[in-house]
Amino acid sequence: MGQQSVSAYAREHGVSWHTANRLIHEPEAPTSDPPIPKRSHQGPDLRLYEASHEFHEAHFKIGLYGDTHIGSAYEAEGERRAFYALCHAEGVTALYHAGDVVAGNGVYRGQIHELRPDCIGAQAQVERAAHDFVDADLDIYFILGNHDLKWWMDYGFDVGVQIENAAQGLGARRTIKCLGQASARINLGKEPCQCVLDLIHPSGGTAYAISYRAQKIAESYTGGDKPHIVSIGHFHKANNLPHVRNMVAIQPGCFEWQTPFMRGKAIDAHVAGCILEGWMEEIEGKPSLVRMRLEWAKYYAPARSAAG
What we know:
Blueprint (H helix, E strand, L loop, with lengths): L2 H11 L3 H9 L23 E5 L5 E7 L11 H13 L4 E4 L24 H15 L3 E5 L1 H10 L3 H11 L6 E6 L1 E6 L6 E6 L11 H9 L8 E4 L5 E7 L2 E6 L7 H5 L7 E12 L2 E13 L10
Parallel strand pairs: 1-6, 2-3, 3-4, 4-5, 7-8, 8-10
Antiparallel strand pairs: 2-11, 6-7, 9-10, 11-12
């Protein structure tokens, strides 16, 4: 496409010439039917959707993880599978993923060079993620993060729906379900001892202190609308605050090793997942989380088997 055509594209879509040139020449997000349009300009749906998972009891055991970035050349695939195996061994009822299931493309300049060669496009990332979820053989509930939503905002390609459909096509025996874009609220168990779990994938960069963003998120909740537990993705950190505003705030780690982009920004990657066991009781007419046991599964880069 010549310079005149790039200029016409830029005028038509209201973007700069350089942005138009990049959009025209970047790899397409392949799909089958219908073809994906360029630049849908669709923002994410940030509403907090609720789901009721009554199959849990007042005593429950769940797995929390996130930021798998499937399709990244730096994804921690073996460690992720080890975490699934641990969840099986520990009798985990379901897994809850805090977003950024896939790597996306074009989230930051040069990201294409940090992707697996076979996972440049949206459909390839979705298929790899669906295979991963199906092979886990666990009930997996997830939300979408900013990397997943890049496909939505640029092309109108819904990663959540596509993963569900691909998993069904693979004959998934367990539930694989997207609960929302950027956030979801899950009611674990039945009243009167129902535990409220929020999954959120916020925006913004890493703070100077690991726990700072989790603290600010906990402080941002309106009184009377707080969950018992909030699992926070996006920051690639493993951290828990057991009692902030009567909530448990957890950053469940990630399953992507530090990328060149992260290294350049001095961002560490905590490759980890966790298993949360909780006990609910009714106290003065309110469901209360009275006991909690949190187990971390920590993983290390192959060349770094010891701290330091």
